[in-house]
Amino acid sequence: MESIDLLVLRSACQWLAEGERVLLATVAGTWGSSPRPVGSMMALRADGRVVGSVSGGCIEDDLIVRYTCAHGGPGMPSGVPEVLRYGVSADDAHRFGLPCGGTLELVLEFDPDLATLRYLLSQLDAGHLVQRQLDLRSGQVHLEVTDHPALAGLQDHVMHSTLGPGYRLLLIGAGALAEYLATMALFNGFKVAVCDPRAEYRATWGVAGVEHLPGMPDDAVRAFGPDQRSAVIALSHDPRLDDLALLEALQGPAFYIGAIGSRRNSQSRRERLIEHFGQTQASLQRLHGPIGLYIGSKTPAEIAVSVMAELLAEKNSVRLPGSVRVAEGKHVMECSA
């Protein structure tokens, strides 16, 4: 399953190519609480069809009424982009289902340029991070490939947003836990790959839509080419496989690198990587282990929920207190028992 941003852009491209009128809405600013973050997008077709979201649903409904003929509305205007703000008053906030004190600012583009959208998608499909700048006075869009994401928002009549290729996840080991985690990652918009040189595990893999990388784990990591929107998780429980992947991944910029294992096994792994493979305490700061959040998980499915929650928190730059992580959570529970 593709990320929602790519799905919105592809839908807009397809509709425009079919001759349909299209509105592209982007969250340009929020104040207080808001259902969707800055940069979130939705595409609205003239007949009321919607892909993506900018709120919990009420604002989407209002946009359909305002800009389509689906419910007898006036249809879409033409011309330069518009700025639309919701939730300025308490009545508006209540009407549109915004949290207490929430305000949402949208930039609306009417019939965005098809050639420019196609070029943007080609760059994203090629794995590039792209800075998109929309001049609200002229409607002109400037695209620039970049190495570092910039803060999205509206400033001096220009809306800035950074769009990137879909997030990716490489799993080492093709056991039951990997299948549950792959399924959750796919539903969260990740492209997922798995590597397991053990034929008996590869033969029983049952999750569709996952790329299988051949060879040993270190070769698979190199072939995967982790970037800043990638994660690598070792799940084989075999240090001969997991260590190879981790050592290779630690050389790259993946935003999350982790390995399954108990507190004792995780500590042994760190000692092993330092003693035999030239790692240091500093170089292993990026290595997560034990992985996951402490939710008392026992089954592979529950452990996958725990790991996916930590992965998403890292992706979304959420700083979690140590007490919610597996190692400290178990320690607290043991001390209070």
TrEMBL record:
Source species of the chain: Pseudomonas cremoricolorata
Protein name according to UniProt: Cytochrome oxidase I
Span of domain XdhC- CoxI: 15-66
Gene3D superfamilies: NAD(P)-binding Rossmann-like Domain
Stretches assigned to the XdhC Rossmann domain: 169-311
Record-linked PANTHER family: ALDEHYDE OXIDOREDUCTASE MOLYBDENUM COFACTOR ASSEMBLY PROTEIN (PTHR30388), MOLYBDENUM COFACTOR INSERTION CHAPERONE PAOD (PTHR30388:SF4)
Xref: Pfam families: XdhC_C, XdhC_CoxI
